[in-house]
Write a structure and sequence with these properties.
Elements (H helix, E strand, L loop, with lengths): L1 H17 L4 H13 L3 H14 L4 H14 L1 H7 L6 H6 L2 H18 L2 H9 L8 H14 L3 H10 L1 H6 L1 H24 L3 H14 L4 H13 L3 H14 L6 H11 L3 H11 L1 H6 L1 H10 L2 E12 L6 E15 L3 E10 L29 E11 L2 E7 L9 E10 L3 E11 L4 H4 L2 E2 L6 E17 L3 E15 L1 E20 L2 E14 L18 E15 L2 E16 L2 E2 L5 H6 L4 E2 L2 E19 L2 E11 L4 E12 L24
Antiparallel strand pairs: 1-2, 1-19, 2-3, 3-4, 4-5, 5-6, 6-7, 7-9, 8-9, 9-10, 10-11, 11-12, 12-13, 13-14, 14-17, 15-16, 17-18, 18-19
Length: 654
């Protein structure tokens, strides 16, 4: 019994001896427990200190700090009125500066920013706590988004920043934000020099930051260096595939670099919303995705004599494919069946100035082909042939180039094409008297044309010079100039109407429009002038598009006199030196064309085009029914305006 009482007494004495006897002791114990992470016991010890010395500023700080760790909301409510200003002023200056700094950081932790600013602001510049207080003000400025002011405080807090890696990193962030704003301002002002200086600092601070990579792309754009902009945007997308607007900017850059397939691929993979709304990229998709085309095409032309008539039905099939490295290839085959009328007795034809008997109608048939290769956007090569079974078959070809500018486009090149104005000029025929084959005229042309403006106003023009030749056909020279404009007159959702005017001037060195040996059966006046108003209407409704275009022209034609046999002086002399008379005429010409195209499936369209022309040289009608099918679904298969199946004439695959 005595031993137990002695043991209890010893424990009680020991406990009494270890317990703090005053406020300073309890505060020291609260600090020790807080440092160990035992916040609840630290709060209890601080409450004992508060009970013994409630006026001491450090005791109040110890209690509110522990309370903040246990109940932050209660601490926020208590903190503004926790300290007594008079008691704070009574502290020694160095001690008060240290307490103000500690209170400022506590306010930062609790999110009471105005009170934190007051405490940090009350720390004297001469105190040892000043640098740490300035670091707190820098943190506060960063939180408020004022990076420029934060840098001022970071300079004053240099000693503290050097000792704290997290503060050093925060200073770098603040400096980066300031320079980023400087770059953005210079970029918006189009000041490449200032933007370059700001970017140099950004690249030093954060070389792989998405904003730095975006700035590198923007600076390259300011300097007009599109290849550098492409590289920067690709680096940005490698770091952040979701960088806002980067994929769309890269697509624009690739278009500017004349890389349409790459632009389409970027939009397809990284910016599908851009592809869904951009007509230019959709047009590239329609061209670059492999597809087949087929058409039934019928043409009727009626000239001034019975045998100056051509009926040309044909079937067309093509396949077009592409490769990002090798460009695009198009293979076209056509089965043509040209036919003309009988030739009445007494008409000049072949080697006869007047046929003794009526000649049977002229006709032919065969299969021709054309291959087109576009190794890159803006250039295309063609090679083909008219039907090898024709009386006169010809090799065809072309090199075509196009360059686009902000205001419009230029097209130029050289081509060798068949003259499809009569059976004689297109397929050739045989002289019923001598049995000789002649005709098959080709036009070897060089041309330059341009289009400028936008949907509200467009100006266009073309200059061309050509040499025409054929078997037993006298060589001839042609020149031509066209110019015109179209002005938007009315528009609405999905439709637009334009009106304007056009003028054409053309001429040939010799008249070779007749049907005796040496002539080619193609329209070749000495002077051909047309002028008049023109219009077009384009519209889109759902999965259908259509267009109507036309013109009314005043035409003036002058045809020179020509000998019957320009290539055979002996036959000309033996025939009595006959000549076709010269002729001048004028009148009103009309042209009207309508097209409609509709979506059959998400990768198939069908369309119809009908065109009619009435002129002083001939009347013409043309009808085409076509379909186009892609190997996979595309964004928008229907084109506006509709595009019928194209052959080789001035066709650039882009």
């Amino acid at each position: 019994m005595g031993l137990t009482v002695a043991l209890i007494a010893t424990i009680a004495l020991a406990s009494a001896a270890s317990a703090p006897q005053d406020a300073a002791g309890w505060r020291a114990q609260a600090d020790a427990l807080f440092a160990q992470g035992d916040t609840r016991r630290s709060l209890a010890a601080a409450e004992r200190a508060m009970a013994l010395d409630p006026a001491d500023p450090w005791t109040r700080y110890t209690w509110i700090r522990a309370l903040a760790a246990v109940d932050a909301d209660a601490a926020r409510r208590a903190l503004p009125s926790m300290q007594n200003p008079e008691a704070l002023k009574a502290l020694p200056e160095e001690d008060r500066a240290r307490l103000e700094t500690s209170l400022g950081y506590l306010c930062l932790d609790l999110g009471i920013e105005p009170l934190a600013a007051l405490h940090f602001g009350d720390v004297p510049a001469a105190s040892s706590s000043y640098a740490k207080a300035q670091a707190g003000l820098a943190i506060l400025a960063v939180r408020r988004g004022n990076s420029r002011q934060a840098l001022v405080h970071f300079v004053a807090a240099r000693a503290t920043v050097r000792q704290d890696p997290s503060l050093a990193e925060l200073e770098r962030d603040a400096r980066y934000e300031v320079v980023l704003r400087e770059f953005s301002t210079a970029r918006d002002l189009r000041d490449a020099n200032a933007a370059g200086r700001a970017f140099s600092v950004m690249d030093e601070l954060r070389p792989n930051h998405p904003a730095t990579l975006q700035a590198r792309a923007d600076l390259a754009d300011l300097r007009g260096d599109q290849p550098a902009r492409e590289r920067a945007l690709r680096e940005l997308l490698a770091v952040d595939p979701q960088a806002p607007g980067a994929a769309s900017q890269l697509a624009d850059t690739l278009l500017a670099l004349n890389q349409p397939y790459e632009a389409f691929a970027v939009a397809r993979d990284l910016a599908p919303e851009r592809l869904a709304s951009d007509a230019v990229l959709q047009a590239i998709e329609r061209d670059w995705v492999s597809h087949a085309e087929a058409a039934l095409d019928w043409r009727w032309r009626n000239g001034r004599t019975d045998h100056d008539r051509l009926e040309l039905p044909r079937a067309l099939v093509s396949w077009e494919s592409s490769h990002s490295r090798f460009g695009r290839v198009r293979l076209l085959a056509e089965a043509a069946y040209p036919e003309s009328d009988d030739i009445p007795a007494g008409e000049p034809f072949g080697s006869s100035v007047a046929l003794a008997d009526r000649a049977e109608s002229q006709s032919d048939k065969g299969i021709g082909a054309l291959a087109q290769w576009s190794p890159r956007n803006g250039i295309a090569f063609e090679f083909g042939t008219t039907a090898t079974a024709f009386e006169v078959s010809n090799v065809l070809g072309a090199i075509r180039l196009r360059s686009d500018t902000d205001g419009g486009s230029w097209s130029y090149g050289m081509d060798r094409t068949a003259v499809e104005e009569s059976l004689l000029s297109y397929a050739g025929t045989r002289d019923p008297v001598s049995g000789q084959a002649w005709g098959g005229v080709v036009r070897n042309r060089a041309y330059l044309e341009g289009r400028f403006g936008d949907g509200s106003f467009e100006l266009f023009g073309r200059l061309a010079g050509a040499m025409l030749d054929g078997r037993r056909v006298d060589r001839n020279v042609e020149w031509r100039a066209d110019a015109g404009f179209l002005q938007r007159a009315a528009s609405g959702p999905g439709w637009s109407a334009r009106v304007g005017g056009a003028v054409t001037a053309a001429g040939f060195a010799d008249n070779r429009s007749h049907f005796t040996l040496g002539h080619g059966g193609y329209f070749s006046p000495d002077k051909f002038l047309t002028v008049g108003p023109a219009f077009d209407l384009q519209a889109r409704s759902g999965d259908r598009s259509f267009s109507i275009e036309g013109s009314v022209e005043w035409q003036e034609i002058r045809e020179e006199s020509s000998v019957y046999f320009p290539e055979d002086a002996a036959l000309q002399a033996a025939s009595g030196d006959p000549r076709y008379p010269s002729e001048s005429r004028d009148g009103v010409g009309l042209r009207l064309a309508a097209s409609i195209e509709w979506r059959v499936t998400e990768r198939t369209v069908a369309g119809v085009r009908l065109e009619g022309v009435r002129g002083e040289d001939a009347d013409q009608v043309r009808l085409q029914v076509y379909t186009r099918r892609w190997t996979r679904p595309i964004s928008d298969p229907v084109q506006m305006p509709p595009v019928p199946m194209r052959m080789g004439d001035a066709y650039l695959m882009n």
